[in-house]
Design brief:
Blueprint (H helix, E strand, L loop, with lengths): L13 E2 L9 E7 L14 E7 L3 E2 L7 E3 L2 E2 L4 E2 L16 H4 L2 H23 L12 E9 L3 E4 L4 E8 L5 E3 L4 H16 L9 H20 L2 H14 L9 H10 L7 H6 L1 H19 L1 H13 L3 H27 L11 H21 L11 H16 L7 H11 L16 H7 L19 H4 L3 H10 L11 E13 L6 E16 H8 L12 E12 L5 E7 L7 H16 L12 H10 L12
Parallel strand pairs: 5-8, 8-10
Antiparallel strand pairs: 1-4, 2-3, 6-7, 9-10, 10-11, 12-13, 13-14, 14-15
Helix pairs in contact: 2-3, 2-11, 3-4, 4-10, 4-11, 5-6, 5-11, 8-9, 8-10, 9-10, 10-11, 10-13, 12-13
Length: 614
Amino acid sequence: MSGIAMGSAQKSTRRDRPRTAHSEYVVVHVLAADSTVRRADGRPVTTPVRIPRERWGTGPIGTRVQVIDVDSSLVKHYGSFEFEPDQLVLDPTDDQLGSAHYQACNLFATAMATIGQFERALGRRVAFATDTHQIKLAPHAFVGANAYYDRDAEAVVFGYFRGEGGTWVDTSLSYDVVVHEMSHAILDGLRRRFSDPSSPDQAAFHEAFADIVAILSTLTRREVVEWALQFHLANEEASTSDATRDQILGALTTSFLGAIAPQLGAEMPQRQRALRASFDLLDILRSDPDRARRLYPERKARKEPHGLGEVLVVAVLAAFREILIGRLGDVMPRSAQGGATPIELVADETSRAADLLLTLCIQAVDYTPPVHMQFPDYLSALLTVHHELHGASGRLGVSEALTESFAAFGIAPAKREKGGRWMTFDEQREEDADDEDPNEHRELDYTGVRFDQIQTDRDEAFRFVFTNQEALDLDPKAYTRVLSVRPSSRVSPDDGFIVRETVIEVLQRLRLTRAELSRRLKVDRVGAGDEDDILNLRGGTTLVLGDHGQVKYSIHKRLIPSSAKQDAVDRIDYLEHLERSGWVTRQAKRADFAELHRLARRAGDAGYEEEVWS
């Protein structure tokens, strides 16, 4: 943070905004990509976003975010500003774009819109991993080509730097950068243990997820899609009024990166290379499918978190492309038939497809285990949430697109049954009915459970978990804690019915010596350290409860793997990774997002550096 003070601001004068009976929201226009992205007539590309109409204070400050415009490099305070919706107009002038007031309001609105996207997808308010209700935003925190989320500072901070042309570049004005960093902050609140040392997959997931949300969120902005298509087709010397289907799909899949933080990409070749790496993998999929299928296992074996992240991003982008092709097939003729499609229609379908997939990607976090998340787990989570909201309708072929696209890069679901989705608790119980281990076939004991309380109260949830540790495949000898209880209400797009669920995170911790763990795993040795080394093991489960408090899913990671060979191999690999990260000696901490960003930008032809836990 370079010494920047991010504590709570002094009590400010608040202004009540007028409320209307017909709407709880206000619509404003924010920059849709970056201040240098201009239409043909020179106007910046903006997009409408909807934010809650609430009581705003100077900063701006609202119920969820607070802008503190302090520059630690220059030791300068740019001022505290009122949030003025009228500032965020459809066509801001260059003078407005350069004003600290406009920049503060644009950042505030973009961050609030991102929070709104998550809350609509999850069906509840999102909580940050900090001790405060508000995340702080610093639009001019330091001089430097970086931006990052800092849990300890309870803030997302943005740098600014002088570009090659001599003009100042503000990272806080880039739509996808703001969404990316806010996604880090929100994911950290949803799954606090995803920033702990674990497997290479978990090390890669935070950055990959933030990229996925930023890219898909940008694609939901039809103004940006129209601009990108027109820009590409103009370069191809094709008419925007009679572009063919193949020309448009080619633009969407080969050049859209130009609309994702183009100014940062132009001024920062290292950032452009890191972003483009995932898009370039689409070319590998088309030109060398066999090589594409080896990417995930090879990069996982080499412990390349940044390279792994690229694979997850491109797997989602490949699925998006297939979903979009399916949608376009319904609304536009084939290019072989000589048909042409208006850019506006394609932009609209692109926006809808991106919003559908973005919503699923966010909702899937609720169906991931609380610790040691692997990419196959995330794929099973995606397939499960699609099943829950869309049933067996196969709407738009989303499940097929996800399964095939992930498989194309060597990622299979964590569960091979039920089409790759997680089994419900009842389905798992039926499958285990013939298991020789009687503990695998225990009924859940709901005696004394207050179903209205278990859906909101951590203590009531712990009472249920403690009573059912064996049935939930938890270790009775381990320290057990309920991290969160989060009720949600989501609307199924298929039938309009509300799907009510409660998500409960349960964490377990166990300390064993290396020798004790080797005996429990029935292996000669785990790792190369001393047998008396203390290993800190973590496991747990995510419980998804139904309407009336009954367990629908138990998505768990065992502290000690079962006798299944692959499970044991995966856990030994994870333990060895922890050892390299310093976790055995208890020196490692959670991920440093600023350092992860620097490593990601340095990743290039020289290979990938191992992630740093500081």
